[in-house]
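Our example copied in:
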Amino acid sequence: MPDSIVPLLATAFDARAELLPRLHAEQTDCYRMFHGSVEGHPGLTIDRYGDLLLVQCFHSPLSTESLNDVEGFYSERMPNLALVYNDRSQANSRIGNPLSGDQLNAAMATREVHEIGVSYRIQGRHAGQDPWLFLDLRAARRRVMQEASGKSLLNVFAYTCGVGIAAAKAGARFVVNVDFAESSILIGKENARLNDLSARPRFIKSDAFAAMRQYSGTGQPERVRGKRMPPFPKLEPHTFDMVFLDPPRYAKSPFGVVDLINDYASVFKPALLCTEPGGTLICTNNVADVQREVWLDLLQRSAAKAGRPISEMEWIMPESDFPSSDGQAPLKIALLRV
């Protein structure tokens, strides 16, 4: 690793010389400027979100000298961006560096950013840890927008509902976003208000398993093995033309366990059963250790076992601001016709 980070930043900036004008032309002002795991500084990511430059370190803190180099480099090439630095090298990627004064104000300011003509809310820091819009999912949101006109879409593990808002912006006739976190649903509702949508999306605060079991017609019992389940919204059976499934690596609730390494089928099957026959199911797996073809084989076997075999599949690859050294991006996105 060179003593100065500037040559690495310059190489990454030059590599995006053709991409950025294309993104700007389609009303996109949020993208990754530096993808450290591939571009020479593992653990460092630098993202533009509108007028915010978000610098984050996941392996070790960035030195004061390097942070000054980052700020100086981008202030020359992309002036008037407010830099916010989050040291996320602590356990569970928690933000560890305190900010004060103007830096804290810049981090906590609520901003409007744009992607493919869709507006979203963003903050450099908030009560959670991750940014409100995951930039590597742009390719998936783009594909959803190409497919969504006139269709119904269920967005499961919706987080701040970016996929659902993109679908509604593209003319989907009916969109449902499901997430267990009230804070994420509130940002999703704010995202909806920022956009001129022909049909207002629905937002449901619910465990994903409870929602999918009800929509699929399987049903969610109020008691399981003699224990009363936590309260959950009651939903009528309904299948969707499109289902978007973006689960976290691991999560556990009374309704079920999400485990993308050992048991992806547990979330895949109910999502599949929520998909209209002949419809489209888009799945993600963000675990780098899971091999693409191994995961696809699991999806094919699970679909066949459920009596809903996959008739067609397509890999959706992250866009070029997320380069990969071997063509095997950690985020795997599979579009399935089922």
